[in-house]
Amino acid sequence: MINLKTVRWLAAAFSIICVVQACTGRSGSQQQQDLAADTLKANALIKTGTRIQSGKSDSLLTLSNELYKIGYRHNYKKALLYAKIYDANYKWLKANHEAALKVAEQALADAEELGTTKLLPDIHGIISNLYKESGNYDLAFTEIDKAIKAARANHDTAEIISALGNKAMFTHSYYNYTDQQENDHSSLQLEFDALKMAEASNKYERMRIRFYNNIAQTYKEHKDYEKAIFYAGKAVVLATKYNQRRSLTYSYNWIGESYFGMGQRDKGFDYIYKALAITHDLIEPYRRMELYEVLNQLYEKTGDYKQSLAAYKRYDTLRDSMAVDKNTRRLNEMQVVYETAKKDKKIADLNAANGTSRRMARIIGVVAFLFLIMLATLFWQYLTIRKKTKIINGKNEGLNNTLLNIAFIQSHEVRKPLTNILGLMNLIKAENYKAEKQVLKMLEKTAYELDEKVRQVVKEAEGN
Fold first, then answer.
1. How far is it, in rounded angstroms, from Cα 97 to Cα 358?
2. CA max distance for the chain
3. Model-level pTM?
4. Which of 44, 68, 199, 344 has the fewest Cβ atoms within 10 angstroms?
5. Domain count along the chain
6. Quick one: 460 exposed, middle or buried, by C-beta within 10 A (0-12, 13-18, 19+)?
7. Would you say residue 182 lies in a domain?
8. pLDDT the model gives residue 54
9. Which range marks the domain in which residue 402 is found?
10. Any signal peptide, and if so, which residues (predicted)?
11. 111-116: long-range contacts, CB 8 A cutoff, minimum separation 24
């Protein structure tokens, strides 16, 4: 039989299982709530990131880190993908081109794996700009053509405008980089074509900033300074409206050089230093390096070689600190590796999922362990009860045999002497209770026989 102690133990085990299951249920429910909350947070971060990609770089780092946390916590691939895009932008703005390209290519591989075509133009655009800034125009044009193709496939007018603007800028930069300015007959027209698309709707107003700046740069290089100042001024208005401070550094740059070219040198330097101050505030060493190069050239033209040398030293120090030449070589090497082998993805997207799986596995393991203990206990109790049942059944069988023997003795052997005694008593009664000696001896003998039979019954009963 199951004793009271065993019953209590089983009740305690059952209670533990119920508590674990209840906790698991609450944990699962809590995880669903956490996922829902983090999904809303991730979408809000993504929306913010879309607005500030040209803003302060530290803001991009904060957004990227938050999205990484959410992505790894829930294995939320959308959050991880945007985290990498913002991370690549941040590293690009910090002039860490090698790391930026690595992250951008991871984002591209993830987007292709997930079938997220919406983000392909943006990612190809980042990669193309990195190659352009490293002087690898062949790869820059290859990537920007991929961006244009993806944008058209998505029927995304904003991305088409952006990609066309990049191609126009690359074209212009290429002819400057190769000192073939006289052969640049297309970049300005490409800029105006893209600007026309951006001016067709107010929703593309912010996108006009880059085109005003690029057109201003081209006019400045053509020494058409009034037009350069006009278009750069339009860029200043919109860049201020949308807080695009990095874009302001270009607007002030072109305005400053244009005023310098028109003979208003002090005014020109003022604008260049305004742009330089913004790069310090935004912590953008690459733009700061470019502006010191401009200052070096302008001071040299004024004959102020002391200031020219100071600007050049700052430019050279920044260039060395950012290892621009090394970055250029590494970017080319990485692109070859990526195009030939698509690079092995070295990411930890499954960390959060693995952590959740391990946590759930521990809970399930505890429940399973308790369940096995309960099964083992019940099986042991079954064997004990079975054994005792066999013993009881065996005893019952022996008892039945004993009862049969007693019944036999009682119905046959005990009945005989008892009948004799009754017969002799009737005889004595008939003689008026007077008996002969012979009759009394017979009565005595029969009584002994009855006693023997009674003893036999008792012995039979005691034997079981």
1. 37
2. 174
3. 0.55
4. 344
5. 1
6. middle
7. no
8. 53
9. 354-462
10. 1-22
11. 111/81, 114/77, 114/81, 116/78, 116/81
